[in-house]
Amino acid sequence: MWNDSLEEKLLKIITRNLNATYKPNPKLLYHKTNKIYTLTYKITIYSKYPISKKDYYINAITGNLINVVDRIHTYDVHGTAVTRYSGTQTITTDLYNGDYRLRESGRGNGIYTFNLQMGTNYFAASDFTDDDNYWDNFNQDQDEVATDAHWATEKFFDYFYYTFNRNSIDNNGFALYNYVHANLVGMGFPNNVNAFWDGYRITYGDGNSNYSPLTSVDIVAHEITHGLTEYTANLVYQDESGALNEGFSDIFATIIEIYAKPIHINWTIGEDIGTPFRSLANPNQFNNPDTYLGVFWDMNNEVHQNSTVFSHWFYLLSEGGNGTNDNGHTYFFSGIGLNNAASIAYRTLVYYLPTNCNILRC
Asked: What is the pTM of this model?
């Protein structure tokens, strides 16, 4: 773990200690085994892949290894989640001190879903727990949406792993963290109708009277894709490169939703939580542009507004279409199918785009 600069950086944030490190620091102490105390060096080694954290006790005189103690006190099990947006699904959790938690270690370096309890302090977040691993946690706090986030994150990981042999967003098992029930107003947002990726985790607001909590499959996948973009093309989040950034998130949000729920195919973003935000098939429906510099194009280059030119390209590439665009150009062609279009989008993002790419010229 200490060789991964991002993990080291996150540890400093989590522990609020600028000197924190995963690098082993031997400690001289007496260790008891079989009622015998032995002077030992205790060394904690945390490996990232495969995941392992263990204390090694080494005889300080002979150098012999006398004991190893596992520091990861969990094991993964399959549970059943009655989700809010996706029906009943199988999820992976872990068993810890008699309760099941929304944590797992089998996908990459893990998937973890925490409860911010309408607060703003990540360090104060708690686990969602269940005593029988049947997660039907419908209550006034809307805790059921936590399993939506957890399951959607699992499906995101599975899609990229089984389709492109990619091990999480950085292709090195990046651990995926969800924080549900965030007080976004307390973080400076105008309301709780939002979710965001910050380079380390995904944070979800609970919505308002018009929108329910933002943990539907497409929104979860949209936010994690920002992480994928950060570890690949790293598109600058402004102007046209920012619109591409948002466009890729809508594209893979749609792909993951169709992968996870193939009998509920749609081309909109956010339909499960209320009125959709955007449409890939018909951007104009929600006052977004479908043509570069066409109707609804924002000359100030707002990234969400202009992203639909690119996401609509993906829809046409997949499904085909014909007509005349806002610039007077006619088009007619057949689509190549979702999977082929997804492969093109993936390779474009991962292998070809420069950081400051814009929609017309790269």
From this structure: 0.80
304 among known catalytic residues: yes
Amino acid at 276: P
Is 181 a known active-site residue?
A: no
pLDDT of residue 50: 66
- 3-state SS of 44-110? EEEECCCCEEEEEEEECCCCCEEEEEECCCCCEEEEEEECCCCCEEEEEEEEECCEEECEECCCCCC
pLDDT tens for 17-33 read: 899 999 999 999 998 77
Beta-carbon contacts of 40 under 8 Å, excluding residues fewer than 6 positions away, are: 28, 29, 30, 31, 57, 58, 59, 60, 66
228, pLDDT greater than 70: yes
CA dist 231 and 169 (Å) reads: 7
Residue 156 clears pLDDT 90, i.e. is over it? yes
Instruction: Classify burial at 112, counting beta carbons within 10 Å of its beta carbon; exposed 0-12, middle 13-18, buried 19 or more.
Output: buried
Mean pLDDT, residues 171-180 taken together: 96
Residue of 230, 264, 304, 319 marked catalytic: 304
Length of the chain, in residues: 362
pLDDT of residue 166: 97
CA 117 to chain centre: 20
- In percent, the amount of the chain with pLDDT more than 70 equals 96
Helix (H, G, I), strand (E, B) or coil at 204: strand
pLDDT at position 66: 87
For residues 280 and 319, is the Cβ–Cβ distance under 8 A? no
Catalytic residue, candidates 223, 240, 246, 257: 223
Question: Hey, what amino acid is at 121?
Answer: N
Question: How far apart (Å, rounded) are the C-alpha atoms in residues 266 and 279?
Answer: 9
Q: 38 in helix, strand or coil? A: strand
- The answer to whether 353 touches 244, Cβ cutoff 8 Å, is yes
User: Tokens at residue 8, please?
Assistant: 């080291």
Q: Which residues contact 201 (CB under 8 A, 6 or more apart)?
A: 122, 176, 177, 178, 179
